[in-house]
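Need tokens for this chain, all 112 residues.
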Amino acid sequence: MLQTTHTLRFFITAIAASFCATSAMAADPQHWLCQNTKAPMASWGDSSVACYSDRACAFVTAKGGEPLPDYDVKSVSAALGRGKIEALLTTSDSIVAAGKKFGYVCSKITLN
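Here are the structure tokens for all 112 residues:
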């Protein structure tokens, strides 16, 4: 009986750990960094970056960039057309697609 109890506890712990790991991954989605090829970023400190989440804006701030928070997703094309934004940091595929239409080059990054 003792062996069965330990085995059951092991499986419950393994399932709980798996659930927590899956939840952590879902809570931190992969971000896209899209850079303006017409005005490339020299460094984070010289860059205005449109960020679409608190986590993305905190990342830009930590790197020394100027975060442009709460950028209106619906007006992203108009903002990109003005050419004042050096980069975008987002999880949205539609924002990435809009950036690519304006010549931005996008790659996935991990926010650390």
